[in-house]
Design goal:
The protein is built from 2 helices and 6 strands, in the order E-H-E-E-E-E-H-E. The chain is an alpha+beta fold.
């Protein structure tokens, strides 16, 4: 089965975190996300998932030269950033998109879905 990356974009100007959300809204959303995750597990589609801290907490490491360079912050400035993700397994794009619809509904947000690259046959 193909693995798919479901990504949750956030607005860079806001850098929302669970701590900054209304507790009642957060509780409702977490219940819906838990139900979605349970459905993924029960279907055998769940691989991994996680939420990310905002870009301001990042450190970029570049060791492409003679010595490593550590820079506080994200590697690129953008109007949006990756706030969280799922990695799922699905038989095809249509099935992955159906899961993505459910994730989008649970989070009340846009979700991008893309297949992970597979190694070419040897």
């Amino acid at each position: 089965m193909t693995k798919y990356f479901l990504s949750l974009p956030h607005d860079s100007a806001e850098e929302p975190t669970m701590e900054s959300m209304d507790p009642a809204e957060l509780q409702q959303m977490m219940a819906e996300v838990d139900a979605f995750n349970t459905a993924l597990v029960e279907a055998g589609a769940f691989v991994s998932a996680g939420g990310l801290q905002p870009p301001s907490s990042a450190t970029t490491v570049d060791y492409s030269g003679d010595s490593p360079i550590l820079t506080p912050g994200p590697f690129v400035e953008a109007k949006e950033y990756l706030g969280g993700f799922w990695i799922i397994e699905a038989e095809n794009d249509d099935v992955a998109i159906e899961w993505t619809k459910q994730a989008s509904r649970a989070l009340r947000s846009r979700i991008e879905v893309r297949a992970l690259q597979e190694a070419p046959p040897a």
